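TL;DR need structure tokens for one chain.
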Amino acid sequence: MKVLVCLTLLILCCVSHVKVVTIQSCPMAAGSFIQTKVEETVTLTCVNDVSMDPSNQHELQWYRNGALVDLKEENRLNRSSLCIQPVSREDNLAIFTCQLKNDASMNNSIKLDVQFPPDLNGTEEMFVEETSNVALSCHVHANPPVTVSWKRDGELLDLTTGSYKTTNNGITTQLTIPKIKRDVHQGLYTCEAHSDVYGIMNKTFKVTVEDKVLKFPLGPTIAGLVVVVCTIVIAIISRRNQIKECCKHN
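>> reply
TL;DR here they are.
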């Protein structure tokens, strides 16, 4: 019994001297995640268990995704604050780690969950030649992810007809129209993103189909002209004597 008590006291004694690094945050974290939005501010404060003892000064370090953050000297000892302002899309899923400089095993981390809408707005005007292949692209990267639909002149596109092809990799969605035809495809196309957080956002493409322009075969034409000119020059040179005699008589 005495042995058990001694072991318990020894364990408690060891635990009480372990240097624990903790991170306080505003807004408050949910576990190891902080949910926030673009343009907002996140404040992180790193503290270790000896911060109240002036005789124990421990330097703290901050890392963002493994890269050391430059801190002022007065913001390193025992208590260190980091301000992310304003929060951007690039901060989504960024991991911020605080650790003791002289003991990297004493650390704590927190990850940002940044909500942001897709970058969709405005109207883009497109003039395309008939029978050409056309691609309409929308940037739909968002957190949380959005669902996307395509419309033509306000009506949902039937993507089963083979007249259209769509792709979506979570970053960009694209509508492809192979061999576009004026009577079938000309009109207003809308890329529409649906979000439970941000509602409905869209971008419009005004597609005008023009007559196909017959492209002038410039290369072969130039080659042909060169041949003709060379032939004329050679003919003149070969008959220069006859031309001289003709000129004398005149």
